[in-house]
Prior knowledge:
The protein is mostly helical.
Amino acid sequence: xxxxxxxxxxxxxxxxxxxxxxxxxxxxxxxxxxxxxxxxxxxxxxxxxxxxxxxxxxxxxxxxxxxxxxxxxxxxxxxxxxxxxxxxxxxxxxxxxxxxxxxxxxxxxxxxxxxxxxxxxxxxxxxxxxxxxxxxxxxxxxxxxxxxxxxxxxxxxxxxxxxxxxxxxxxxxxxxxxxxxxxxxxxxxxxxxxxxxxxxxxxxxxxxxxxxxxxxxxxxxxxxxxxxxxxxxxxxxxxxxxxxxxxxx
Length: 249
């Protein structure tokens, strides 16, 4: 059972300086006084997630599958006695738009400030090498290469929301309540996030992104942080993709 600590410790700073070389990471669960789960609860919830998404696959459209599968999963988690699950109050608390987060050397920062600031290093990792290695004239952006409205909604809203609720919110809340070690839990949820997108050369990078977003959720306990970071990342990749594809054609 996770230890309960006093309010002063709960208000510790988030050790992120938004890309600073002296950033100090904290690999431990924020202690919260809530009901512990068993490993059986975590495993049962994972099986339920798979079952809900397999069943909702009959609906066909990717957006419908995501919404129906994730909605059914969270609904059954909140209503069935076994395995234990997150409650509607847990979900609403995780969407606290008024939350400010203490950040090292900055002070109280709104959740969206944390999300935007923490997105910078991930974009730099991709953008800087891409710009440095691209031949002259390689980039020629065209609006025709951007996705249609349904695809844009899927990538900028539906995917970040549903995947954030499962792979950052539920998975890490479950691991924390079951008393599982912090680092393996964050890495495991990240690997599940990468595998969810299929086995490809990008899977490990996506797993690393999922672990990074999961770590930020675990430290802030605000799902708006990873969801918005995911949306920013997808918007960035759509924009770069429109330029690179057009330039390569």
